[in-house]
Write a structure and sequence with these properties.
The protein is mainly alpha-helical. It is built from five helices and two strands, in the order αααααββ.
Amino acid sequence: MTMPKSLPYHPFKISNLKDTSYSAAYLSLIFDEEEEGDLEMGIMRQVLRDVFEALGEPIMSAEDAKLHLEKLDILLPQSGIATIYALANWLKVLGLKLTVAVAQEDEGEESGAVSDVELAEVAKV
């Protein structure tokens, strides 16, 4: 008996990421993981490259796409406020933007207390 062949996941993922709402939700999930400290930089890089493949490659020349990915490789290892602006600009080219949202209150947290702001909820422009 032969097992049915499975379809490769990457093309399926990229086809879904072509929907900017799906890409925004995907990035929001990933940034939530990053906020909790559970995400490796390599995974973040790959996720952003996948979103770029879906949204950026179809609208850019090969040379512009290469430059845009090089910008990503430069900005990811950086830290500080400039990195937030650089990532916001990087995403804007893809039709996405960074937004700020109120963080969910943890159990036992004082109501109305100032908590960490979720800087990386990504939304559709």
